Amino acid sequence: MVTLPSIPATTLIYNDWYPAMRSDLLRGKKMQAVMLMGIPMVLGRREDGRIFAMRDACPHRGIPLSDGWFDGKNVTCKYHGWAFEPCSGQCTAIPSLTSQDTLDPNRIFAGAFPCEERDGYAWVYVPEPGSGRVRAGADLVPVPELPKFSERFRSAWLTADLPCNVDHGIIGLMDPAHGPFVHQSWWWRRAASIHEKEKHFEPIPQGFRMSAHAPSGNSAPYKLLGVYGEPITTTIDFVLPNRRYETIRCGPKWFSSLTTVTPTTANACRIDVYAAWNVFYHVPFVLPVAKFFGKRFVEQDRLTMVQQAEGLRWEPSLMLIDDADRPAKWYFALKQARLDGQPERHPMSGPVTLRWRS
């Protein structure tokens, strides 16, 4: 048993991609203001279809750029009319300048972040504070994308705000023992179904993998795949800074999901779930049914985080125990290694077998 590692809530992992919002909300000349990593940002879509993310503050007097105008090419501040090309942040016009002024507007930049669209999300690359502007064409880590295993598939997404810092959100995401309690229901599992489990884990770059295994027999959704008459396997990966990938295979049928827990501020985060599948592809109403139960599942997690936040207000002593909490210990060790500038330092020296009851 160990006490919970004391990584401050404000210690965030930079130099990586985070989902800022659903990209289908970026349409026309409308801009959207969001908080990401404690940074106010404004996002939009240029007339050529490319999405952008800027710091929501004019470098002149600090007024939010989201209060200004966007014509499809430039973002214009409402205070003095300064205009900026949104993908680079380069200033294109300062209306107050006269023919006698020597200031070159093109040498001024508003804050802008690399922004890419994947799986219906606007992903923003957030560099280390004070590291300077990330220039176009910079060699960045790849933008995350959900693996898919056929050309035809259905997909859905869910999101919920969590009133906790990102560390609590993530260790809740990877916690294997809460299912029969938080998600206790007729359509998922019952507390009486708890039994001992044994899973094999292996190290992967910047994370760890629960190796391919037969899914839990006490989870009702997995049982539905039995109609295909093929062996069912599940693989789960956790990858820094905040990503949980799950892939379920049943012969040619598959289901995959990417769940992220993204810090919006130092003490709040957002969970996003994007899933794709080709199971029951031709079954009517499968998409609304999946979203209905998926929303209830995520809401159970959200409510638990709300209740936990009430308890954490009083700063209780916390602990991590035995095998069920070992993934959380690995997460904290991986995070600390990356914060120390030693991402190659891994808490796992090789494959590990863990056992717990759930």
UniProtKB/TrEMBL annotation:
Subcellular locations according to the entry: Membrane
GO molecular function: 2 iron, 2 sulfur cluster binding; dioxygenase activity; metal ion binding
Origin superkingdom: Bacteria
Residue ranges of every copy of the Rieske domain listed in the record: 17-124
GO cellular component, one term: cytoplasm
The UniProt record lists the keyword Manganese: no
Main location: membrane
Keyword Iron listed: yes
Pfam families: Rieske
Signal peptide: none
UniProt keyword terms in alphabetical order: 2Fe-2S, Dioxygenase, Iron, Iron-sulfur, Membrane, Metal-binding, Oxidoreductase, Transmembrane, Transmembrane helix
Protein name as it appears in the record: Aromatic ring-hydroxylating dioxygenase subunit alpha
